[in-house]
Amino acid sequence: MKMSIQWLVDGVAMPPIDEAAVSRWLADVAAAHDCEPRRLNYIFCNDEKILEVNRQFLGHDYFTDIITFDYSRLPIVSGDMFISLDTVASNALKFGCDYNTELHRVIVHGLLHLCGIDDKGPGEREIMERHENDALKMYSLI
């Protein structure tokens, strides 16, 4: 089965990404982690929507940049990823990077979760950041 990526929007305009190039990049990142992407759905939304999703499905009452729903059976990866463009923009300012780089960091962050990389436990955030940076280098963003 071939990889399928859907780029969807909910209450926001489609962000400025090269869908074909990003799709190839995500396939390369997955391959580097010995994974094969099948169905990836990226849903770009605003803070209001991501808060609603966070409350409804995770019981969390806060904003976040991405929520990943993982349907993977490794090495096959599949999932739905909600990305708040509002939080991506505020994080870009907060971390002193450009919006495009932060957007791509969050896009690949979701895929890395599907590949089995976590960021909640002790020392895991640093491991995730290393994988994000390696992926951004593959796409020539850092």
How does this structure look, described?
The mean pLDDT is 96. The termini are far apart. The chain has one domain (4-138): Metalloproteases ("zincins"), catalytic domain (Collagenase (Catalytic Domain), 3-Layer(aba) Sandwich). The longest helix has 16 residues, at 99-114. 48% of the residues lie in helices and 22% in strands. It has a four-stranded mixed β-sheet, sandwiched between helices. By secondary structure, it is an alpha/beta fold.
Short description:
This protein has 142 residues and is an alpha/beta fold. Helices cover 48% and strands 22% of the residues. It has helices at residues 19-32, 47-58, 85-95, 99-114, 124-138, and strands at 4-10, 36-45, 66-70, 76-84.
Structural class: alpha/beta
What portion of the residues fall into strands of 2 or more residues? Answer: 15-25%
* Number of strand elements: 4
Largest β-sheet summary: 4 strands, mixed
Q: What is the CATH superfamily?
A: Metalloproteases ("zincins"), catalytic domain
- Named at the architecture level, the CATH assignment is 3-Layer(aba) Sandwich
The CATH C-level class name: Alpha Beta
Which residues sit in consecutive blocks of at least 5 with pLDDT less than 50? none
The helix content, as a percent range, equals 40-55%
Q: What's the arrangement of strands in the largest beta sheet?
A: 1-2-4-3
| Residue-averaged pLDDT | 96
| Number of structurally distinct domains | 1
The name CATH uses for the topology is Collagenase (Catalytic Domain)
Please compute the radius of gyration using only Cα atoms: 14 Å
H-E order: EHEHEEHHH
* Helical stretch tally: 5
Distance between the termini: 32 Å
Which word captures the global form?
Answer: globular
